[in-house]
Amino acid sequence: xxxxxxxxxxxxxxxxxxxxxxxxxxxxxxxxxxxxxxxxxxxxxxxxxxxxxxxxxxxxxxxxxxxxxxxxxxxxxxxxxxxxxxxxxxxxxxxxxxxxxxxxxxxxxxxxxxxxxxxxxxxxxxxxxxxxxxxxxxxxxxxxxxxxxxxxxxxxxxxxxxxxxxxxxxxxxxxxxxxxxxxxxxxxxxxxxxxxxxxxxxxxxxxxxxxxxxxxxxxxxxxxxxxxxxxxxxxxxxxxxxxxxxxxxxxxxxxxxxxxxxxxxx
Length: 266
Hints:
This protein is an alpha/beta fold. It is built from 9 helices and 9 strands. The radius of gyration is 19 Å and the shape is globular.
């Protein structure tokens, strides 16, 4: 197969939400995209879009770990070595620890963490031949500040930050950088139920200094930056993109009071 002059980006969860926005961002930056997703219809829509000529779709279940490294090698054979690997796809189960089954734990760990390692295992040998290659893992704010009923998700996303650091150290000698993004609440189809609830929106926005939820395009911009030459001396790091939620709270906003002062510590 004749190879395009455009570099290649491999993106998981590419058919919707952050993954879709990221795919479109890379195409606009003159990349080809290998789009991996479990939604056949979503991949068809992406392929039919005006950017479809530069998108190669692969139906893929990240819970099927054994298939991922061979798939990576197949993509390298068909499209060449990637300059960017974006491990974006995620899954979560909101359950108390006593309710979370072994099946859910394993699925959460596989999709959110083990799949990223399996794809790296498949792509890294080829990426070593590419100048300025980069891996970007999409973790979560929950990797740093946990929520109740999210034990399997929080643990897996925290593990993804550990994997990010290890890959940065291990692959640095080959010029391959590895960084992570930790999104807050993003307005995507995955969060539709919550964001369609006026009470949730009204109360949650009090926690976000920027007074809005993130957009998929906001995350795509950060992901592309970390994969680009503009971040050429950045590796092993994570960027929290949550509208300021983790940096601190305005108690006047949280408690919906115009005037508020904390109680004296004396």
